Amino acid sequence: MDEPPSLILGKLTLSRLVRLLFMTAIIAIALLGHRVPFTRYLDEQLVSHRFSGAPRPASNSIVFLAIDKKTLDSVGTWPWPRSLYATILDKLHEADVNDIFVDIDFSTPSTKQEDERLGSSLRDAGGGVILPVFKQQASADGKGIEATKPIPLLAENAWLGSANMYPDSDGLLRRFTLGDAYDGDVIQSAAALLSKSTLASGTLRIDFSIAPSSVPTISLKDLFDPAFDLTRLNGRSIVIGSYASELKDIFPVPVYEQLSGPMIHILAAETLLQDRVLTEFDQSALLLLAAAIILLTVLTLKRRPMAIAACLLFSLLLAGEAAAFLLQKHSGVVVYTASCWLLALFGLLLLMTEKLDLSRLIADIANAEKRNMRRLLGKIVVESTDGILAFDHRLNVFEESRSVQAMLGITGELRGKELREVLPRDLFNLVDRLVDTHSTDTQLALSSSGRFSLLIGKKAICLDAVATISPVTQRFKAGTERAGAFIGSLVIRDVTAKQTYEDRLKYLSEYDDLTDVMNRRTFGDYVAAHEAPPLVFAIGIHRLSVVNTTMGRDFGDKLLKAVAARLKAVGHFLEVGRLGGDVFAVAIAATPDDDIAACARAIVDIFETPLEIDKTLISVGVRVGAPCVDMATGHHEGSIEQAEQALEEAKAIPGSGWRAYDPAAALRQFGARKLEHAMRESLGKGDFFLLYQPQIDFASGAVVGAEALLRWQHPEHGIISPAIFIPIAEANGFICELGKWALLEACLAASRWPEQLSVAVNVTAIQLLRGNLVEEVDAALEASGLSSSRLHLEITESAMVEHSAPILKTIEKLRKKGITIALDDFGTGYSSLSYLAGFPLDKLKIDQSFVRKMDHDPQSFAIVQAVKSLAVGLGLAVVAEGVETEREAELLKSMGCEVAQGYLYGRPQSSSQLVSLIARQPWVKAA
Prior knowledge:
Layout: H1 5-32, H2 37-53, E1 62-67, H3 69-75, H4 82-94, E2 100-102, H5 112-124, E3 129-137, E4 145-148, H6 152-155, E5 159-162, E6 175-177, E7 179-182, E8 185-188, H7 190-194, E9 203-205, E10 217-219, H8 220-223, E11 237-242, E12 250-253, E13 257-260, H9 261-273, E14 279-280, H10 284-301, H11 306-331, E15 333-334, H12 338-355, H13 358-383, E16 387-392, E17 397-400, H14 403-408, H15 419-422, H16 425-440, E18 446-456, E19 459-471, E20 474-475, E21 481-482, E22 486-494, H17 496-510, E23 518-519, H18 520-529, E24 535-541, H19 544-551, H20 553-568, E25 573-580, E26 583-588, H21 596-605, E27 611-613, E28 616-618, E29 622-626, H22 640-650, E30 657-660, H23 663-685, E31 688-697, E32 703-714, E33 718-720, H24 722-732, H25 735-750, E34 758-763, H26 765-770, H27 773-784, E35 791-795, H28 797-802, H29 805-816, E36 820-826, H30 833-837, E37 843-846, H31 848-851, H32 858-874, E38 877-880, H33 886-895, E39 899-901, H34 911-918
Parallel strand pairs: 1-10, 1-11, 2-3, 2-11, 3-5, 14-15, 23-25, 29-30, 32-34, 34-35, 35-36, 36-37, 37-38, 38-39
Antiparallel strand pairs: 3-4, 6-9, 7-8, 12-13, 16-17, 16-22, 18-19, 19-22, 20-21, 24-26, 24-29, 25-26, 27-28, 31-32, 31-39, 32-33
């Protein structure tokens, strides 16, 4: 086919545009030259390479006395005392040296003696010493420049030399100044002074062809050696300065990467001494000439072989580079040649565009890319792990992936076949519906997707399929077009494993994984979905925690499975669910003649027959929470929450049993929960407080201590009994935080009492098990300053029953600190003699229930006597609680009890009231 004129004109325009761009680039390079940052970077690299290619030695007229690591180690201090520099100058003066440049900052005074010593040496040197002056920022915000000079005592006996160094924009130091202005005066640079130059303004390039290694360098440590030959320095100029990297006087430079500041001053001075002042000149005219030569060469040689032009340009560049090298080496003239290389590069590119048909090249590249793309797409389709079928508007397959046959259970070539022949009906219908939609508007690209479950052979699989139709326009030589043509694709992915995983996740979100019954949320949704709510019963397994502890958690899990299986086996249960832990729930269809009691007993009776687990018969006791039935209307409450609340009441029944939902009990539970939520806020507000009940020594009648009793002043309900809020705090774990507060408050109060009084603080088993009691006691004693011997901790018998190693270890630590441990309310809990014998105690507190009855109850009297005898045998002191009458006090005193506590001696009272009571000792009856 012939190309249209517009296309030919476009190609010609493109070729001309490319040539024009290259010519413009050549002229721009010639005009800008060294001013372009990239070109300037290349030029500096070439200049540095020329320095490296023509090294020259130093003149040996300047010696570098280096403060190196060896010198620093030998002196052992930095900064050095100025008397040490004076000693160095004296030795150099003896050696009859030329000028001496000491590159050390002397701008701040030292001691008067040290400054005068160095000033004296400078005077003796006869003005032959150069000291540095430099400029620096006047403040940390970068505003203002100020001159840093030696102190006047030193400056007036020395030359001043400018030591400023100004790196280029790339951070490398290439030039040095001949002089700088300081407060209106021009001061020559140190390099100019060392070289005896009369120049005092401008900047010059440092000749880095002068090798630093050729500069005579002597460690200052060697100068201190008495055997050092001073004649080596006769008639030479001396530079003294840092060489050690620890002193951080290092600058980045070309060729040598880094040099010390004094060495750079020496190379700058050597540049002047060797008359190596490098000359730079404006090369604009040369660059324009080079551009003209390159353009002329291109136009002249465009019909010659490309290699000839390339060789000619390369030869010219090499000749120019050789000339630049020789000029820099012998005459000190710096020629920048990077722009010439760039000009030659763009000239070659221009020549290529002249010799090649660029438009045809671009077209060939584009066609090759299209062919490669088609091959690549075909390879992607064939090797795809997804099943892919490409088809035309006649629904004939023209491309397929290798995986599609295995995925659909088909054998043989699919290309050329109709989709109807190769696809299962459901998949073909997806494509067929899409074709029907396309026929209504042939210009739209359409897609559709779906998930299908198919039986391929004997295997059930799940497939995700996406069908796509894209319209195409077919052009013919006659200029006609065929409308309605399209190409389509069907992408199939096997998602069987994904679907199985999703089904499993859905199941786990709705059912309990261990017992295969509904979980709490699903069971609740099931109950709520019924128009006529069913009866809901909560079932709790008795002592499951004991089973887990004694027989292992795996056995406990099997027990839960067996319980669930037995509940599911009951035919008249609508559904079974697990509410959590050891609690199940069942739903029973409600009838007009519901008998809640019969249903609850029937559920209890289900577990009369033992369960068989691992060939072991296990008897299971259950408690049942039943719904509440309104006796007046016959309506029942079917919520899960009410069944659970009833179950909480049923758990108080020994053995198996049931309880119906009791609104009054629920109200009590609700009140307890409200108190539970209010505790933390009340502690922060200061609603909790302590009262102290005095403890009296029977022998002396003196107050020896007091027990701290916790009280709660609720803002709405007033004083709340400890019998109510302590169990709640123990149940939710807040007792640990509450106990920590009480311990600190009691210690702070006791620290203000007379030193002979102790304070007793109650500690629960939960605090011993879960809290950091030892650390809390230490913190309370430290904060209050209370002696540990004045703190008594009273623990309950439940801690003895636990008798765990952590509790024993905690109590032993406390006793080692000198804290007294008492067993509170002895005789009311579960204590046995075996527990008592193995427990580290100091005191027993007889419960007030025995004390109050011993006057008229012989059994209580006998128990108190037995406890006292037991305490004597165990070496424990006895405290009697609840002493309210003189008769009780006489009996206890006759038994030999050591301490008494009760209303006879004082009610619980504030700390200040307790102090007043102590002032009336011996004790008097409380009013």
